[in-house]
User: Which sequence fits this backbone?
């Protein structure tokens, strides 16, 4: 195994992999820490989405809040942290729903979906804010309106389109 690229978010390695049938192949693997995807539920049943610019596709999109699990952090702690950072609210309840691998053909990233609820204001001395490279706008939608955004092609993010099916 050789790491051929190491960035802030992920690394790429080339490894010789032996398959169950005995064949060996050299493969490129994207190594990415687990990520959490939030389904932030308000008391009235609306779900909170965020709108942000995604430089990789050069446009703003609506999506479920999400982020990486930091080294030494549990996915549950990451879910609570990202909720406060991205939508400015602290969850009283963090419920793990399930995990999925969005691109297992080349990446080991797992997306772990959480329903977060009992949303309240952060402590007055909280320092949790969006990352420096994020300009995030949060807005609550009825579940029907959020799913309609998918149907109309206004939500183009697969984790969000799938996550909304969990509601």
Assistant:
């Amino acid at each position: 195994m050789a790491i051929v690229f190491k960035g802030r978010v992920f690394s790429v390695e080339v490894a010789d992999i032996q398959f169950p049938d005995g064949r060996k192949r050299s493969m490129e693997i994207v190594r990415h820490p687990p990520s959490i995807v939030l389904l932030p539920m308000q008391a009235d049943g609306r779900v909170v989405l965020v709108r942000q610019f995604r430089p990789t596709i050069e446009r703003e999109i609506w999506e479920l809040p999400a982020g990486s699990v930091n080294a030494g952090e549990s996915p549950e702690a990451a879910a609570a942290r990202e909720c406060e950072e991205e939508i400015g609210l602290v969850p009283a309840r963090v419920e793990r729903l399930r995990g999925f691998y969005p691109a297992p053909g080349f990446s080991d990233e797992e997306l772990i979906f959480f329903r977060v609820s009992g949303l309240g204001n952060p402590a007055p001395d909280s320092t949790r804010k969006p990352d420096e490279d994020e300009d995030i706008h949060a807005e609550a939608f009825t579940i029907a309106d959020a799913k309609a955004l998918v149907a109309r092609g206004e939500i183009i993010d697969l984790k969000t389109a799938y996550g909304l099916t969990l509601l």
About this structure: Residues 16 and 22 are 12 Å apart (CA to CA).
